[in-house]
Amino acid sequence: MDPAALKGSWERVAAHGDAVPSFFYATLFITNPELRAMFPMSMAGQRDRLVSALGTIVSNVDNIEVVVPYVEALGRDHRRFDARPEHYPPVGEALLATLAHFLGEAWTPELAAEWTAAFGLVARAMVDAAEQAAESGPAYWAATVVEHERRGLDVAVLHLRTDLPYPYLAGQSCPVEIPDRPRLWRYYSPANLARPDRLIELHVKAVPGGQVSTAIVHGLQTGDKVKLATPVGQRLTLQPGSTRDLLLIAGGTGLAPLKALVEQVAAGGGRRRVALFVGARTLLDLYDLPALEAMAANSPWLTIVPTLSHEPWYAGERGLAVDVALRLGRWDDCDVYVCGSADMTAATRDRLLGAGLAAELIRCEDYNDEPYRPGFATGVSEREEVPTR
Amino acid sequence: MTANTDDYGDSAHSGARSWVPLSAEQIRRRSFRETPLGRRGYRPDEVELFMGRVAGEVERWTAAYADAQNEVQRLKYYFRNEGVDPDAPRAWDVTADAVALMSRAQAQADRLIADAQAHARAMQYDARAQAEAIVGRARQEADRAAHAYRVRAGADYNADREQAERMATLGRSILAALSGATTQMDGASAQMRAIADAFAIELGKIITEPEEANAGRTAPPTSPARPASPARPASPTGPASPTGPASPARPASPARPASPARPASPARPASPAP
């Protein structure tokens, strides 16, 4: 393989911007119309993901330690999209036609051979990784909505029951697809530990303009079937072996994974003290207070502090959750978990660092602008509705 | 030997479209007239020997071609079984026009969806801001009404009575804002209007209740210095009304442990936990 030739030609093609994925998908769907159903109605986010994934692979093509795990994760992640081995040849053909189109004269037989070989390797690795993953678990888990409860203005608390046991850790996120929005996956975190009765509680806020979250909050009903794919994320899970006390700071429905952490501490006998600061705008947004109070009622190790930022009449703590936390206590030796919108998370982290807390003790999801990163709930297009938790 | 020029199927001479293949058998059976005496010709035995070889060769290629055709069919069948259409157009056969048309259609669809999303986003933000403004204004009016009552009542002050004043004012203010909003709705929003009307009726009941039940009831657990918020988080069993059930009979109790008297530091073992 000639990495320089691959990188150079990809750079030239990628310079054509959005026209490249547009050409690729148009070619793919004209030659294989049945593949269109595997993609969402709007392809806007999809184009960025294709270019991002191809770019990652090509720019690391000579860096085995990076490219192999990436491609394998890509293959495993494509199981939830129903990708099968026979889908790869038409994709490869459309990719080669796209490269040929944009390279024009520069598309030589040698370059064509390079790309054909490279695509073959990538496709092979993806298929192998997917087949390997198929031995340890399904591509996705079917689940039924057993309860759908509106809380406040724009939040729904869902209870799902998976048909099969669905293993996950407290603090992880699950890709979710609902019947009304096929092919649009969004990440939500269970608010409870994995249970023997296979019940999962999700907190969903209807993000203004959000395609999926609004459909979940306003449209989803008891009895509806949804899909859950393999859970992802390690940033918000409890660190094995740590016995430090916990400071949890939640913004909006960012409460969900932190509530699951509280359950995990409780399941461990409540041997760590936990302070959970629940940030919300107004009283209406404190959508889960009774459940939290019930948890705290029998747990001397647990303190719940709701804080409201837009409720000047509120008799409890007013202001941002992080400010209240810093006012009320010292947290030097705590494991700190922060979950909320991207803005809230970043601002909270900055405040905590400014107050002298050690960066390595502060754990929050790692938001970035990557449109697609298999195995991480960070791509903006799949995350678009989560940041305003 | 019979002369039979038509065995060629005519093709070589006429260049006709209907090409009839020459079979090995036709080659073998092909006979030639003898040349007239005195004219030179090929030796018939050599010609026959060579024709035999040519016929054998054609036979072999015909068989090989049939095998290849069978193999093609078998592969097509295999791919069809695997869900792949072997006769589908190939990527390099797709015309630039088709690609451009398809890309334009998708771009148009993407734009429509994005516009709808942006529109929905703006409406939802507006609605939220409006709801908060209505509640905020109602609270200010309620505070003023409570203050007016305190001034008016003097020695006859009664906490229950103040609370009733407060709630009644709050409800009236929200109701007025809501009925103003419903008149602006067009026919398409009949459902929204129905929800708002139902909400108004419920609110009406709530407003009259404290004044009627006032005398017999115990004081609500909210002190006058601590204005009750009418908008508690919706109770799990409550209806999912857009503004949440506002119950003056149970003024919002702010979260239990929020009192500053109970510092919430689990990090300090010495922290008091009454």
UniProtKB/TrEMBL annotation, chain A:
In the C-terminal section; belongs to the flavoprotein pyridine nucleotide cytochrome reductase family. Belongs to the globin family. Its EC number is 1.14.12.17. InterPro entries: Cbr1-like_FAD-bd_dom (IPR008333), FAD-bd_FR_type (IPR017927), FNR_nucleotide-bd (IPR039261), Globin (IPR000971), Globin-like_sf (IPR009050), Globin/Proto (IPR012292), MRET (IPR050415), OxRdtase_FAD/NAD-bd (IPR001433). This is nitric oxide dioxygenase. The keyword Iron applies. The keyword Metal-binding applies. GO terms for molecular function: 2 iron, 2 sulfur cluster binding; heme binding; nitric oxide dioxygenase NAD(P)H activity; oxygen binding; oxygen carrier activity. It comes from Planosporangium mesophilum. Residues 1-131 form the Globin domain. Keywords: 2Fe-2S, Heme, Iron, Iron-sulfur, Metal-binding, NAD, NADP, Oxygen transport, Transport.
TrEMBL record, chain B:
Residues 210-274 are annotated as: Disordered. GO terms for biological process: cell division. Its main location: cytoplasm. Residues 215-268 have a biased composition (Low complexity). It comes from the Bacteria. GO terms for cellular component: cytoplasm. Keywords: Cell cycle, Cell division, Coiled coil, Cytoplasm. InterPro entries: DivIVA_domain (IPR019933), DivIVA_fam (IPR007793). It is found in: Cytoplasm. PANTHER family: CELL CYCLE PROTEIN GPSB (PTHR35794:SF1), CELL DIVISION PROTEIN DIVIVA (PTHR35794). NCBIfam families: DivI1A_domain (TIGR03544). This is Cell wall synthesis protein Wag31. It comes from Planosporangium mesophilum.
